[in-house]
Design a protein that fits this description.
180 residues, alpha+beta
Length: 180
């Protein structure tokens, strides 16, 4: 009889929430593959900032403090903000019609929650954003892709592929000092 698979700590950045090792990890009444984008977004932000981004610890915190319908609909946006503040990070939001790219230049990274619609299908999704000289990196954009995607701007990302509307954007400042 084959051995049961054991949890393997993922390699950063975290992309493809509906692929191994994430898809089978229980999360509330769901699993990370279906409902874990908020957890992966927070872990990716911590990783970008240079902090310990222990997936299991972050997942457990959200299971106690921030699920929507037992994680069937993921995590509450306000819980994402609360978690980041509890880590001592400075976060801020801008209204939906503001220029996100200017704010992202001021931040170390951001977590974007957006609503998407394609035909009769729709849903919400969290991603992590990081501004680089070449554009904006987007982590965990697609549930089934291990790739990090690059767009010229946040606005371009919101216009491409699906009809998307930003619901919340948490800009984060708080890169860990390396002591050098």
């Amino acid at each position: 009889m084959p051995e049961k698979s054991k949890y393997v700590e993922p390699v950063y950045p975290l992309n493809g929430q509906d692929t191994e090792p994430f898809k089978g990890i229980p999360f509330g009444r769901s699993n990370l593959g279906k409902s874990g984008c908020g957890v992966l977004a927070v872990c990716n932000a911590l990783w970008i900032l240079g902090y310990d981004a222990d997936l299991q610890s972050v997942k457990k915190w959200f299971e106690k403090n921030g699920l929507v319908f037992g994680a069937v609909w993921g995590v509450r946006a306000k819980s994402v903000a609360k978690f980041l503040r509890l880590q001592g990070l400075t976060i801020w939001e801008k209204p939906r019609n503001s220029t996100y790219d200017k704010e992202l230049e001021r931040a170390d990274c951001a977590i974007l929650m957006y609503f998407w619609r394609r035909g009769k299908n729709c849903g919400g999704h969290y991603v992590t954003l990081k501004k680089t000289e070449e554009g904006v990196l987007i982590y965990n954009l697609y549930r089934n892709s291990k790739q990090t995607y690059r767009f010229a701007s946040v606005d371009e990302f919101l216009r491409k592929n699906y009809k998307k509307a930003a619901l919340r954007v948490y800009f984060i400042d708080g890169k860990k000092e390396t002591g050098e």
